[in-house]
Amino acid sequence: MAPSEIRIPGDRAETLVDPAAYAGPRIHETYAWLRANNPLGVAQPEGYDPFWVVTRHADILDISRQNALFHSGDRSTTIVSAAGDARIRQMTGGSPHLVRSLVQMDAPDHPKYRILTQAWFLPQNIRKLEDRIRTIARASVDRMLASGGQCDFVSEVALHFPLHVIMEILGVPEADEPRMLMLTQELFGAADPDLGREEKETADPLDMGAIQGVLADFYQYFAKISAERREHPREDLATLIATSEIDGRPISEFEAMSYYVIVATAGHDTTSSTTAGAMQALCEHPDQLAWVQADPARIPGLIDEAIRWTTPVKTFMRSATEDAEVGGRAIAKGDWLMLCYASGNRDETVFENANAFRADRSPNRQLAFGYGAHLCLGQHLAKMEMRILYEELLPRLKSVELAGEPRMSQAVFVNGLKSLPIRFVAA
Questions:
Q1: Model pTM score
Q2: What is residue 297's predicted lDDT score, i.e. its pLDDT?
C-alpha cells in the first residue's frame, strides 16, 4: 500500500478504471483534481495492482522520452485488473499481451518492426494520396448533404471516411469494411453496452474471452489476406506485412497478424473520434465555426485543437525497468504507470484556458499522438485526412447545430463519440 501522502483517494482511483467515467465529465473532473492535488500519485482500485497515475504534461513527456527506462512490453500496456491479467497470461502461456504490435514492443524489436511500414506514413509519401483522399472526402460530404439537413455525423461521416482511406492503403476490399468497423468497435468498445461483443456480468469491465474472440476473427480474416498476398503481391500495405523480414527471417504469423490489427483498428478509429469531436465543438461554438470558415488556412489549427480536445487514446501503461525519479517521486523497478494523455492535454500550466475549445490556439503542444519512440506512426495521415474533409465540408455549410445529445463510448483505453446528431443548413 502506498504511503498516505502519495495515495490517491479510493473514489478517484475507482474512477480511473471505470469505463463509464470516460463517457462523461467525471474523468476530467478527476484529472483536474489530481493535477491540483496529487499529480503523480498511486492508485489501487479494488481488484487491481497498484499503479502510478501520471496526469501532468511534463511528467508524461519525461516518461515517454525515456524508452529504455519505462517499457511498454514487460506488463500490460492497457490497464487491466489482476484477474484479467491472470486470464490473459493463462491464454497466452505467460505473456501479458493478447497481441504483439508496435504498441507492446520495446527496443531492439520496436525500431525494427516500426521501420517496416514507416515509409508509408511519411509526409512526402502520404502527399501522393491527397487527391484520392479528397475524392473520398467529397463523396462523404455529398452523402451528408443529401441527407436532408439532419444526420448522425458519427455514423454517416466520421466512421466511414477514415475507415475507407486506411482500408484502401491496407488493401482490404470495400465490401469488407463493415466487418472491419464492427470488429474495431468490439475491440476498443469491449466494455461499452452498445459496442461490446457480449452482454456480461463480471467484476472485470473487460471480458477477456470476448476480446480474444474478436482478435481470433481478425486473425482468421487477415490470415487469408496474408496468404493471398504472398501468392499474388500487390502495391499495398498488406503485401508489405505479409512478405516482411526481420534479421533475414520472415516475421512470425502472430506478429504479422498483430501488425494487421493495429493498422486496421488504430488506423481509423482515433481519426473518426477526432473528426466527430471537431464537429461537436463547431456545433457548440458557432463563433469558432465562423472564424474557421472565414479563412480555410485556419483549418489545420481547428484539427490540432480537436486532437487536443478529444484525445481518443486516453491512457497507456508503462513499467519501470530500474529505480527512477519522476516529478519528485521515487519510482521503483517494476512499478506500473498510467500515462493520462487526456489529462496532459488539459494541463493548465501548458494550455491557457485549457478547458476552452480554441481553434486559434498557438502553440498547441498537444500530446495525443504520444511522444518519443512510440509517437503515432499515422499522425501525418490522420491530420491530412481531417484537414481535407473539413476543407471539403466547411465551405458547403451555412450553419450547423446539435440535434440531440452526443453520446460517448465507455472505454478506459480508446474512446470517442458513438453518436452525434446534428442539424445543418447547406450553403
A1: 0.96
A2: 97
